[in-house]
Write the structure tokens for this entry.
Amino acid sequence: MKRSQPLTPAVFHILLALSTEERHGYGIMKQVEADSQSRVKMGAGTLYGSLKRMLDAGLVKESDKRIDPEMDDARRIYYKITAAGETALKEELERYRHAVGRAQEIKLVPKTLSYGH
Amino acid sequence: MAIERHPINRAFYRKLLTFYPRPFRERFGESMEQTFDDLCKEQEGKVLSLTLHLSVDTGFEIVKEHVLHLSQRGVMTRILKNPKIAAVVGILLFLPGTIMFSLMLMGIEPSIGPLQPFLQPTDPDAPHVLGSLVFLSLILVLPAAAVLINIAATEGNALKGVSSNLGLASILGFLLVLPLMVLELTYGQKSYSSFPTGLFVILWILPVLFVLILAPVIQSIRSGNNIAANPVTLVLRIAFLVLITVFWLGFVNDQMPCFLGVPNCD
């Protein structure tokens, strides 16, 4: 099976944010911020530019337009990860695992950081 | 609500969104405005800095979307892959410059509207140095842009590289021109009736193109790729880098006396 190209940081973080549940744009931004411990703060331009390219690539799809009960009464478009998106995310995580494994081989990082331990 | 408290910021951001390509704007404009409102509500005390941050981010994305929009429509790709159309486009790109140089060589001074101050000096005996350089640069810039798009179209990911390097290239170009602008503002006004904006735009665009063409080569070297894998692209890049360098240095060398306020310079 052909492996996908490495993902950009923005696409990786969006896929990671959508891997647990459907989210709207603002929800994705907040989840990315939380996942990255506030190290990644995505602007609206970057977010929607990435979402457009991901929609075109079939990595995510629009779910529906509905009200977020935790916010105001405005209806928001929700996005969800597709099977292709899940595959791309898994492959990216696998690349990270390989990179960490290699770093451990050459003793750049301690074994305690090993993936899955 | 934040929307009502910050109408100017919201109006500004809404206006900024109108610069996106129409398909993008129609698809995501409403959501982006909504997200902007959500962020304003969240960062109530820092709406100005938030607006600035989002505007810079959105500004870069607008440029990127326009480049991608052109590429995805396949207009440039189709044009540049068809030899006949490419030849016609090439002629059209060179035509204005060719006509102007022919007229200059024949000693005919055409009606050139807004470019008149550059091309027709008040002193009839003065050489058309600046005018010649402006047109040489236009002749250089347009094909360089075409080559960039062509390279992007043929190398796939290069397009992403161009758009991601654009911000850096713009800043580096500006930093290169800044000292000259300071010189011009400090000394040069003695010899110019008004600030030569067009000249500085060209002095800025040339290094921007330089960085955009050079950056992929550096990135390839850093990532350990063979830069000679595509010799035609490499030769094209080097040729344009040399040309841009020669023209930029020629411009600066020619205009330096004016930047320094030497009387009667052109």
